[in-house]
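Budget justification aside, the reviewers requested a transparent look at the raw inputs and outputs of the sequence design task funded under Objective 1. We therefore reproduce one unedited record. The lines immediately below are the structure tokens for a 428-residue chain.
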């Protein structure tokens, strides 16, 4: 049997980003069937080597071509001609793919296009309508994203297919060996500062995000410092797992030094670690924070809940459906106090949700004073919420179903169905 070949455009699927992680999960799910192979453009990261990479143990069935950005006209044309894929799957912000839709008539005329949509906030972007309508199917990562898609382009075939986590990796530790890992991390954090701030019972707040402007990394450090000034610098530590000096963010070590919180109040974990070690950090922490102004989904918070660690989040994008199921709360959701309109020539407008420092400090204090009984209940219910609604098994099954259906109904190349080629009208 000839395997169906899928061309993938996204973050590098072996990178630790949320987009990269979900891309890898999708690919691995389809590879398990034995009926698919993949050619990936591994974008959105720095490369030292641009040679094609065969991913073990799949070899010829999964090849990654490192690229700058997300690709180009020339690369797509070359792969289309050489590899003749059966479908194109792409993911992340549609602004990154304006160049792809420019050659939609070349690509989609031969193979179906499926887009994993991450647009995360209102107002509904009517300017994205032509992009959506130039795609055979749009899968949406959150309920917010799906609502936006249905508002802007209700005629486009779509589905709600949320992110997922591997519950076998991201789990609440129960064995003595695993608990020791988390305990050692906690102890290292406690011992990081001087004796004046050492406190074995201090709360550990974990932030696992990219150091980018909308993630509010700098604001987080500033607000955290001012909160510590009120409650005591021995009461809590902020652990940030991120790039300290991302070109799209801030110089965090410089800011930490400037604010005087480099004595153990704010710590940075900069080394890229495998998921197993990341799970240990979640287990070591008491709460995970995400105050991003806009968040399509927020994979780190889902990972945290899966580890039994409650979250404190801005009620924006996909974070809203993680922190509560409408009845129970698995942490604290902070309602935005205002919206900011940003945009560019490419994107005329988009709202960003802004919380206040006062509200942020209020919920940090609530977390600090939370009873053990309430904490254990949140922890248990949060993990159950993830296992029910964002489990790995359902995610894998859904992607196989979606891709099977797409290729069967739309075909490719000589068997392409459902695409109307444009043509010139004869004028009398």
């Amino acid at each position: 049997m000839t395997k169906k070949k899928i061309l993938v455009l996204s973050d590098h699927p072996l990178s630790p980003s949320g987009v990269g992680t979900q891309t890898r999960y999708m690919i691995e799910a389809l590879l398990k069937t034995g009926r698919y192979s993949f050619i990936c453009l591994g974008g959105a990261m720095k490369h030292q080597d641009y040679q094609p990479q065969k991913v073990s143990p799949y070899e010829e069935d999964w090849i990654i071509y490192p690229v700058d950005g997300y690709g180009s006209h020339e690369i797509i044309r070359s792969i289309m001609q050489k590899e003749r894929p059966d479908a194109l799957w792409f993911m992340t912000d549609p602004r990154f793919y304006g160049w792809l839709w420019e050659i939609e008539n070349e690509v989609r005329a031969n193979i179906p296009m499926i887009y994993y949509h991450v647009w995360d906030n209102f107002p509904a972007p009517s300017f994205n309508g032509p992009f959506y309508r130039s795609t055979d199917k749009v899968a949406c990562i959150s309920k917010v994203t799906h609502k936006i898609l249905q508002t802007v382009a209700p005629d486009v075939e779509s589905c709600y297919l949320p992110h997922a986590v591997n519950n076998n990796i991201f789990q609440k530790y129960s064995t003595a060996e695993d608990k020791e890992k988390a305990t050692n991390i906690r102890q290292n954090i406690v011992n990081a500062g001087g004796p004046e701030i050492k406190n074995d019972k201090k709360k550990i707040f974990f932030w696992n995000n990219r150091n980018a402007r909308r993630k509010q990394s700098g604001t987080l450090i500033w607000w955290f410092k001012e909160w510590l000034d009120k409650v005591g610098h021995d009461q809590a530590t902020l652990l940030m797992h991120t790039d300290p000096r991302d070109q799209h963010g801030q110089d965090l070590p410089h800011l930490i030094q400037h604010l005087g919180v480099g004595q153990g109040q704010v710590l940075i974990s900069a080394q890229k670690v495998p998921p197993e070690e990341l799970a240990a950090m979640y287990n070591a922490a008491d709460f995970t924070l995400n105050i991003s102004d806009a968040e399509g989904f927020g994979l780190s918070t889902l990972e945290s809940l899966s580890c039994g660690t409650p979250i404190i989040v801005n009620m924006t994008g996909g974070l809203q459906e993680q922190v509560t199921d409408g009845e129970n709360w698995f942490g604290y959701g902070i309602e935005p106090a205002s919206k900011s309109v940003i945009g560019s020539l490419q994107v005329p407008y988009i709202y960003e949700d802004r919380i206040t420092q006062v509200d942020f400090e209020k919920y940090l204090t609530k977390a600090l004073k939370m009873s053990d009984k309430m904490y254990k209940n949140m922890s248990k219910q949060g993990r159950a919420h993830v296992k029910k609604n964002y489990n790995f098994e359902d995610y894998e099954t859904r992607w196989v179903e979606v891709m099977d259906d797409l290729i069967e109904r739309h075909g490719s190349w000589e068997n392409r169905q459902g695409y109307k080629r444009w043509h010139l009208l004869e004028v009398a």
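The longest strand covers residues 4-11. DSSP finds 15 helices and 16 strands in the chain. Computational costs for records of this kind are itemized in the attached budget.
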